[in-house]
Amino acid sequence: MYLEELIIEGFKSYVSRTHITGWDPEFNAITGLNGSGKSNVLDAICFVLGITNLSHVRASNLQDLIYKRGNAGVTKASVTIVFNNEDRERSPVGFENYKQLTVTRQVLMGGRTKYIVNGHNSQQQTVQNLFQSVQLNINNPHFLIMQGKITKVLNMKPAEILSMVEEAAGTKMFEDRKNKAIVTMGKKERKVEEINTVSWNGSEKKSHGKMMTMERWMDGS
Predict the structure, then answer these.
(1) Locate the RecF/RecN/SMC N-terminal domain: which residues (predicted)?
(2) Contact at 8 Å (CB) between 63 and 11?
(3) Per-residue b/e over 98-116, b at no fewer than 16 CB within 10 Å?
(4) Cα(10)–Cα(12) distance, integer angstroms
C-alpha cells in the first residue's frame, strides 16, 4: 500500500481544492519556496491519518485547521488520501479486495470531525485500527521526526535509536507485553512452588504420623 494522491480543500493555506499526485512508492521529498505550503502538506497527511496531538500540526484546536479559522467563508477543512492497495499482502485487514483505499477526514466549524473510508462513514477508532494494521500509527511519538528533533536523533546512542525504531515500528509494544508475561509467569511459578512445598510438607507429616501409629501398635502401647 502506497500513497497515490492527496486532495486538500479548505485546510490551512489550501483554500481551493488541490490535487497532489505523482507520489513515488518508496521515497518522496516536498520542496518549494518559503510560505508555499510545504509543511501544510505534511500536516494534511498527519491530519487524515488520524493524528490527535494537534501540536504536531501546529494547531491549538481543530478549528485552527480550517482556512483562516473559518473567517473567510470557508466552513470546512477536508483532506483525502488515496492509496494504491493492489498488493494484498500489505493491505489493511479487511480491505484486501480493494485495489484503492480512500480515506477522508473533515473538520467542521465548531471542531466536529468526520471520517469517510471508501465512501462510507467511519469511526475514528476504525480508521486508526485500519492504519495500525499496516504499521501506520501516526500517534506514536516516534512515528514523525519533526524539524526540531533531527539533531537530537542524530546524537542518540545506538540503544536509544533501536528503542525508537522498535516503538515506531510497533514491535516495542509486543516486547513490553512479552516482558509483562514473563513477570506474570515467574509469579505463577513461585506460587506453584509454594503450593508444592506446602503439599509435600503436609504429605510428609501424614506419613510421619502413620509411622508413629504403626510403631505404637507394634509396641502394644
Answers:
(1) 2-139
(2) no
(3) beebbbbbbbbeeeeeebb
(4) 6
The rounded percent of the chain whose pLDDT value lies above 90 is: 41
Cα separation, 189 vs 195, whole angstroms: 10
CA 179 to chain centre: 20
Reduced to 3 states (helix: H, G, I; strand: E, B; else coil), residue 182 is helix
Cα gap 161→158, rounded to integer Å: 5
Residue 79: all three cell numbers together: 483532506
Give CA–CA dist 220/10, Å, rounded.
Answer: 104
Q: What is the DSSP string of 134-160?
A: TT--TTSTTT---GGGHHHHHT--HHH
Task: Report the run of H or E that residue 108 belongs to, with start and end.
Answer: strand 100-108
- Cα separation, 180 vs 187, whole angstroms: 11
Q: What is the pLDDT of residue 128?
A: 87
**For the whole model, what pTM was predicted?**
0.69
Instruction: Give the residue carrying C-alpha cell 495500525.
Output: 132
